[in-house]
């Protein structure tokens, strides 16, 4: 898997609203993201289209009296 | 110092009017005054309120209005449980002055049971980043050895129970934060099934994996606490509407006929424990075998898969919770927490949902194992190491024995299984079927009564 480039990372950070992050924290972001992308690569796999995620909308929750 | 009492022992004596709640509270306060300056287990001490509550409990009991086994019992709450009129900080500078207007569900239930709130216990920042020296309060220390880590994130709950400063506490567990401190401090801690104990009024770490649960000296005490804190809460979207058994009635001392699974591939190939921890586990399994249980291997997906699913989901949820503050004032966060959440904003929706799909697969695999066995056993972790800053990337690199059961939602108990050559506790983890906390606690109680480990307290307070 190709590592995300620093330029690509800047785009992702901007999308997350982190474009103004001071330089010291940008280094933290880069370091943490390097670990994250290793985990992301491990979980990316083809799954059946109807394979539902663990948390789906449960209407009964909203029928309760809170 | 005065003798150490469990909740079970103290409540029997209080019910018999052989012990006053005020006397019991004074014993706890004396221990706090004597040692907590070294431990930092309390971040807020509600001394005057506790005295008033203990006096009220005493008056009610003397008037014949005994409320039950928690009446007059001193406890604390991890400082992520909201308490009306009492500062609730999450150990974070971002909440330094936050005073909630309402109590958490757990606090409401404990207060209604007549228990005596002694204060708020130290945690890791927002129950996730730590140990830290750059957050609102200094890190808690381990009463078995002040140089050792009490583990997190329910550090103060674990340390204060082991040191006899409270008899019980409420912690939270998103990846092991009840079981880790229970293990490190030589006490018992239960992560109930997801949805069994309400999270209402508990500051979130990661919504989809957060479990609220009790901590105490023994499994019997956990059973008493669970009877009070478990139950349906319509205000918690994850709460499950199931009957709550009287867990104390399940404590028969019998494990004969139970089948116990051990995930040997995790322990022998993927993440082998140290030789002393392996020996302690083998000895604990032998105790169960001698009591009539059957031990057999079980097969599960890799620990790493459970860790990946949980961490990706958690980072995305944590960033959603803290992103607005992090974008504006990153310096207010401790370095440990900040490093653990900052990249969460870069996770694509597709990857978050893929992680949740993986969670479904992993949770199903776990439940399949419980069609073959009644319980699963493995270590909760290793004995506590030196208290020192951890490499910031340790969250991403380490694989533990606890997170898999947050992903699957199964109840998991950590309890003391002896001591190493340096006097630090080993801990056994007992995992059960979803919503079968009763069998988990039954096994824990039987083991504690068959072994001598509950007789020893830290030298600091002995």
Automatic annotation (TrEMBL), chain A:
Top-level division of the source organism's lineage: Bacteria
What name appears for this protein in its UniProt entry?
Answer: DUF4089 domain-containing protein
- Which organism does this sequence originate in? Siccirubricoccus soli
UniProtKB/TrEMBL annotation, chain B:
Domain of life, per lineage: Bacteria
Among InterPro entries, the record links this protein to:
Amidase (IPR000120), Amidase_dom (IPR023631), AS_sf (IPR036928)
Question: Where's the Amidase domain?
Answer: 23-441
Which Pfam families does this chain map to?
A: Amidase
Q: What is this protein called?
A: Amidase
Q: Which organism is it from?
A: Siccirubricoccus soli
């Amino acid at each position: 898997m190709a590592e995300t480039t620093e330029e690509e990372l800047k785009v992702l950070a901007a999308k997350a609203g982190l474009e103004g992050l001071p330089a010291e924290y940008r280094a933290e972001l880069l370091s943490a993201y390097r670990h994250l992308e290793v985990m992301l690569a491990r979980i990316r796999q083809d799954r059946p289209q109807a394979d539902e995620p663990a948390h789906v909308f449960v209407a009964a929750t909203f029928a309760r009296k809170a | 110092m005065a003798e150490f009492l469990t909740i079970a022992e103290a409540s029997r004596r209080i019910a018999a009017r052989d012990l006053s709640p005020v006397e019991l509270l004074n014993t706890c306060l004396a221990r706090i005054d004597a040692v907590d300056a070294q431990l930092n287990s309390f971040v807020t001490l509600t001394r005057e309120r506790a005295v008033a509550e203990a006096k009220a409990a005493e008056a009610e009991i003397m008037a014949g209005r005994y409320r039950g086994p928690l009446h007059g019992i001193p406890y604390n709450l991890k400082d992520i449980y909201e308490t009306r009129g009492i500062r609730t900080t999450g150990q974070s500078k971002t909440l330094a002055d936050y005073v909630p207007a309402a109590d958490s569900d757990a606090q409401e239930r404990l207060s209604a049971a007549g228990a005596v709130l002694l204060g708020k216990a130290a945690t890791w920042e927002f129950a996730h980043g730590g140990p830290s020296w750059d957050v609102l309060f200094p890190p808690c220390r381990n009463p078995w050895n002040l140089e050792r880590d009490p583990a997190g994130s329910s550090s103060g709950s674990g340390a204060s129970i082991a040191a006899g400063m409270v008899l019980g506490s409420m912690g939270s567990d998103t990846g092991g934060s009840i079981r880790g401190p229970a293990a490190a401090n030589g006490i018992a801690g239960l992560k109930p099934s997801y949805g069994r104990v309400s999270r209402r009024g508990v500051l979130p770490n990661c919504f989809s994996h957060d479990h609220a649960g009790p901590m105490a000296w023994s499994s019997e005490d956990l059973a008493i606490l669970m009877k009070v804190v478990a139950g349906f809460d319509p205000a918690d979207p994850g709460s499950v509407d199931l009957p709550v058994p009287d867990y104390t009635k399940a404590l028969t001392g019998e494990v004969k006929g139970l089948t116990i699974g051990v995930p040997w591939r995790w322990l022998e190939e993927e993440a082998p424990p140290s030789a002393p921890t392996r020996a302690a586990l083998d000895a604990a399994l032998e105790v169960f075998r001698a009591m009539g249980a059957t031990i057999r291997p079980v097969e599960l997906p890799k620990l790493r898969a459970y860790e990946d699913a949980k961490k990706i989901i958690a980072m995305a949820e944590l960033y959603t919770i803290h992103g607005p503050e992090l974008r504006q004032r990153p310096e207010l966060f401790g370095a440990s927490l900040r490093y653990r959440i900052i990249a969460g904003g870069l996770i694509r929706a597709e990857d978050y949902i893929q992680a949740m799909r993986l969670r479904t697969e992993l949770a199903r695999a776990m439940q399949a194992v419980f069609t073959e066995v009644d319980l699963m056993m493995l270590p909760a972790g290793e004995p506590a190491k030196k208290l020192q800053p951890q490499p910031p990337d340790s969250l991403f690199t380490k694989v533990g024995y606890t997170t898999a059961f947050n992903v699957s939602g199964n109840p998991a108990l950590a309890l003391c299984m002896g001591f190493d050559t340096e006097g630090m506790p080993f801990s056994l983890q007992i995992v059960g079927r979803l919503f079968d906390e009763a069998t988990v606690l039954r096994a824990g109680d039987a083991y504690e009564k068959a072994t001598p480990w509950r007789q020893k307290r830290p030298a600091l307070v002995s």
